[in-house]
């Protein structure tokens, strides 16, 4: 039984997203710290952020139960594999745990965490139904992990570019996920950008944002913020994957194609994180 409960917990918190959040905070704090080290307080901040990321996934699934029965019936709440009451108990455990851990870092860290809890709740409840605003909120929260690492060590300037990178990648991914989920969103009267303005306009938006990202990724190297290792990883992994993602997007008009693009964008986030860490 304990093993079964553990599997259900892992499913609902989305471990890949939580892990990326954890390491993004560590990376943000590492590049912002004077001595380029990982302190105990930074570790606490990373765990706190991981808790909040887990809670955000749970509350999002809670509000999306009916939509997920159409778009993603395999999800643990939509399928009935986990009951709502248990999910909410886990949610409150994570938000209280995240708040408590952040309070051990300092007051500023705790304020960021409390603000994040409020924002993710209202995103799941209301904001996600507003075209592009909902996408921007998720992208902001993902990028915030880097800035939060800087907050934990008392300096955020070096984390600004990683924030922009993460924001842009995840904004694109959220729009692509909306393209995947149009059937359920339409039935539930959730007017995302692809639902309201059509797939071709959504693709055009993604091409423009993708071009911005390609240019933006070069700037930290040209300004000597990051070294040649950063450029090598970006040029050898993120750029080819981004170009290939746009190619799939251009050629494909089905849910499977959009799913591949979404996966590739998540992979680009991972390699971008590696590039940033190697580049300092």
Succession of helices and strands: HHHHHHHHHHHHH
Low-confidence stretches: none
- Strand tally: 0
CATH architecture: Orthogonal Bundle
Total DSSP helices: 13
- Return the CATH class: Mainly Alpha
State the share of residues found in helices, binned by percent.
over 70%
In round numbers, the mean pLDDT is 90
Q: Domains counted in the coordinates: how many?
A: 1
Structural class: mainly alpha
Q: Cα distance, first to last residue?
A: 46 Å
Per the CATH scheme, the topology name is Tetracycline Repressor, domain 2
Q: What's the shape?
A: globular
How much of the polypeptide forms β-strand, as a percent range? under 5%
- As a whole number of angstroms, the C-alpha radius of gyration is 19 Å
Question: Can you walk through the features of this model?
Answer:
This protein has a single domain, classed as Tetracycline Repressor, domain 2 (Orthogonal Bundle). Helices cover 81% and strands 0% of the residues. It is built from 13 helices and no strands. Helix 2 runs parallel beside helix 13 and helix 11 runs antiparallel to helix 12. The model has no long low-confidence stretch (mean pLDDT 90).
């Amino acid at each position: 039984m304990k093993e079964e409960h553990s599997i259900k917990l892992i499913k609902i918190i989305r471990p890949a997203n939580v892990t990326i959040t954890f390491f993004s905070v560590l990376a943000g704090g590492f590049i912002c710290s004077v001595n380029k080290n990982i302190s105990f307080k930074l570790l606490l901040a990373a765990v706190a952020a991981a808790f909040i990321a887990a809670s955000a996934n749970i509350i999002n699934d809670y509000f999306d139960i009916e939509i997920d029965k159409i778009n993603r019936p395999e999800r643990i709440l939509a399928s009935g594999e986990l009951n709502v009451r248990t999910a909410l108990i886990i949610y409150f455990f994570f938000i209280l745990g995240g708040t408590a851990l952040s309070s051990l870092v300092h007051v500023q860290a705790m304020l960021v965490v409390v603000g994040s809890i409020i924002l993710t709740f209202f995103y799941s409840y209301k904001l996600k139904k507003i075209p592009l605003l909902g996408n921007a909120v998720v992208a902001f929260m993902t990028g915030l992990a880097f800035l939060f690492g800087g907050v934990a060590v008392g300096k955020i300037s070096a984390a600004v570019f990683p924030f922009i990178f993460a924001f842009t990648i995840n904004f694109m991914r959220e729009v692509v996920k909306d393209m995947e989920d149009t059937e359920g969103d339409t039935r539930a009267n959730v007017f995302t950008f692809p639902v309201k303005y059509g797939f071709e306009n959504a693709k055009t938006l993604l091409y423009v944002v993708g071009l911005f990202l390609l240019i933006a990724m070069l700037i930290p190297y040209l300004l000597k913020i990051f070294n040649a290792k950063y450029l090598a990883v970006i040029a050898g992994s993120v750029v080819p994957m981004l170009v290939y993602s746009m190619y799939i997007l251009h050629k494909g008009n089905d849910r499977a194609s959009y799913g591949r693009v979404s996966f590739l964008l998540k992979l680009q986030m991972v390699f971008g994180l590696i590039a940033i860490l190697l580049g300092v």
